Amino acid sequence: MEHRDKSSKLPHSTNKSAIDRFRKLQQKEISISDIFEGIITQNTAALSKGITLVESTQQKHSAKTQELIEKCLPHSNKSIRIGITGVPGVGKSTFIEALGNVLIEKGKKVAVLAVDPSSTISGGSILGDKTRMESLVRSKEAFIRPSPSGNSLGGVAQKTRESIILCEAAGYDVIIIETVGVGQSETAVHSMVDFFLLLKLAGAGDELQGIKRGIIEMADAIVINKADGDNVKRAREAKNQFKKALHLYPIGENAWTPHVLTCSALTKNGIEEVWELVLNYLEISASNGYFEKNRTEQNKFWLLQTIEEQLKSSFYNHPEIKKALSDQLDAIQKHQITPFTAAKYLLNKHKNS
């Protein structure tokens, strides 16, 4: 008993010492140079740390994020960026894992930025795509980063573009962006990729979506997934329906007619053909100048979106606006003022402050 009593006092001092060391470690300044050196030497821990910094919403990290992005920019812009979307249950994660493994076998390094729906309680990712790509996540040539979508448009993480730059600086040849697949995610992801792939299902009432102009205009390829077992015949029928729908629309500026393929991510059948199609598209778009033009237009869009985000952040984080906003919301609740008048008042106050 006496020995136990003496030893029971040890954890108290030991824990206090550990806590003090942990606090000092937390307070230590983040070295952007160390993170950058780690990224360009393909250290995945440094890459993860860099993306965490980029995703931070804390004002104190803004300048550091900008510094890191600027350091990485000269080492970026060398990858193939592929956007993949589709309704929940279409098999996006299984498809990405199959495609990623095929690319790694071809000597590529693959980064997957999987944008998960956010929990309304904790703000964290719900689906956990990393746990659903078991074989890919074990590969040293793959990097998988699930990120909560937060309040971003269409479920695309606000900082996904910056994360792409970091992944490219880390030497990843192919960047795959998986979206939630609901709302306006198709539009958002289309603004940051070279090739946009739309996954569909046969026999699920999904064929009718193929005639929607918006989807046709954005998709560079439509892939009917789960074309295996008893579903093979239905997948072929769906493919024919989509091909007929595609002929209703003129060829786009990129001189490319969207193709329709079938595949089974489960059996890996048709995955090679999808990659060959991507390469064919890139060859055509590079030869006619569309590839570079598209990248330039995306950078312009990025500029305008960044300005909007900065203005929004400046507005809501202004001390005077915070108080005035609370007062105006209270007045609206009491029916003393309309939302439009309150908005005009707050914008004028911010402009003159």
What's the short story on this structure?
The protein is an alpha/beta fold.
Number of helices, where a helix is a run of at least 4 consecutive DSSP H or I residues: 15
Instruction: For the record, give the distance between the C-alpha atoms at the N and C termini, rounded to a whole number.
Output: 69 Å
Percent of residues in helices? 40-55%
SSE pattern: HHHHHEHEHEHEHEHEHEHHHH
From the helix content, strand content and strand pairing, which structural class follows?
alpha/beta
Radius of gyration: 24 Å
The main β sheet shows up as: 7 strands, parallel
| Inertia-based shape | globular
Strands of the largest sheet, in order across it? 3-2-4-1-5-6-7
Average predicted confidence as pLDDT: 82
**Share of residues in strands:** 5-15%
The total count of strands amounts to 7
What are the segments in which pLDDT stays under 50 over at least 5 consecutive residues? 4-14, 118-128
Question: How are the elements arranged and paired?
Answer:
Blueprint: H1 2-7, H2 10-27, H3 32-40, H4 44-55, H5 62-72, E1 80-85, H6 92-105, E2 110-116, H7 134-137, E3 142-148, H8 160-169, E4 174-178, H9 185-190, E5 195-201, H10 213-218, E6 221-225, H11 232-246, E7 259-262, H12 271-287, H13 290-316, H14 319-333, H15 339-352
Parallel strand pairs: 1-4, 1-5, 2-3, 2-4, 5-6, 6-7
Helix pairs in contact: 3-4, 3-5, 4-8, 6-12, 14-15
